[in-house]
Amino acid sequence: MIPTLNADLHCHSVISDGTLTPEELAQRAKNNGVTLWALTDHDEIGGQARALAAAQAVGLDYLTGVEISVSFLDQTVHIVGLGFDADNAPLRQGLQRTRGGRAQRAHEMADGLALVGIHGAFEGALKYAGNHDLISRTHFARFLVETGVCKDTYEVFRKYLTDGKPGYVPHRWATLKEAVSWIREAGGLAVVAHPARYKFSANEEFALFTEFKGLGGQGVEVVTGSHSAAESATYADVALEFDLAASRGSDFHCPTESRTDLGDLPALPTQLTPIWSLLQDRIHKAPAAA
Ligand code: AMP
Ligand code: MN
Ligand code: MN
Ligand code: MN
């Protein structure tokens, strides 16, 4: 039996919409007792070399990671990739294409906000984006908190940045097939991120997992900062039903915003196959302590 370990395979740095650097995240993960870590920035692997070096410096085992934005049945679905070759050219090009259009979308979001009297949101959000190639709704949310429009980022999403609200702009991301293929062809495993967050009917969710499995997807996040205990139990059953391995990750973004800190999660249910047991040869082991 594989011993339980504190794996946190989902979080964000300043290279996407987190507020900590890869080095700060590695140190925080280490301090919190994480032993196996992956940085999974949105649509971007520009932080992977730094994350690996930082993991080695503090003594964490490391898996390469990314969280790809996908459009499926008119919703945005996130697919986490783990254990791929970060130098793989088709993966890099696919992610670059997925990032394209974010600036245009951000201008349209700012236009929508201006119509309800919130001005200067594009420039305001851009100020928070460590990577101007990756301006995200999270950066707008921080700007609206800074200017006192809302008390926290959750309120911003509820009132301004979700479907039907003034700052929401529908967007076409990668297809499920593209995301899974890029990850697989770069030698990694694809994982459906935080499935309880989507608003699919039972039939639509079945279609998502059926298509994902058919494309060669191999995992689902069962334990995440986005799931209640009941939701984790539901997706443990889905993992068994679709013969998928299970992943675990906080989805940590920021010390003052995120409700779940790095590594601060329940263990995976023991009847499931941990995704890292399929990735043993892809783990960059921490140098043995001196
Ligand atoms: P984007 O990729 O620009 O659409 O931004 C998506 C990001 O916004 C997610 O990765 C989360 O970090 C954040 N987010 C999405 N929905 C919510 C929500 N309801 N509450 C708080 N943050 C959210
Ligand atoms: Mn995010
Ligand atoms: Mn996500
Ligand atoms: Mn995430």
Explain this structure.
This protein has helices at 22-31, 48-58, 89-99, 102-115, 121-126, 137-146, 153-161, 176-185, 202-214, 229-241, and strands at 7-8, 36-37, 61-62, 65-72, 75-82, 189-192, 219-224, 245-249. 46% of the residues are buried. The longest helix is centred in the middle third of the chain and has 14 residues, at 102-115. Helix 1 (22-31) packs parallel to helix 2 (48-58) and helix 6 (137-146) packs across helix 7 (153-161). The protein has a five-stranded mixed sheet with strand order 4-5-6-7-8. It has a three-stranded parallel sheet with strand order 1-2-3, with helices on one face. The chain contains ten helices and eight strands. The chain has 290 residues and is an alpha/beta fold. The protein binds adenosine monophosphate and manganese (II) ion (3 copies). Residues 12, 17, 42, 138, 253 line the site of one manganese (II) ion. One manganese (II) ion is lined by residues 12, 17, 42, 138, 253.
What's the gist of this structure?
By secondary structure, this protein is α/β, with parallel strands linked by helices. It has helices at about 20-30, 50-60, 90-100, 100-115, 120-125, 135-145, 155-160, 175-185, 200-215, 230-240; strands at about 5-10, 35, 60, 65-70, 75-80, 190, 220-225, 245-250.
Itemize the secondary structure elements and their pairings:
Blueprint: E1 7-8, H1 22-31, E2 36-37, H2 48-58, E3 61-62, E4 65-72, E5 75-82, H3 89-99, H4 102-115, H5 121-126, H6 137-146, H7 153-161, H8 176-185, E6 189-192, H9 202-214, E7 219-224, H10 229-241, E8 245-249
Parallel strand pairs: 1-2, 2-3, 6-7, 7-8
Antiparallel strand pairs: 4-5, 5-6
Helix pairs in contact: 1-2, 6-7
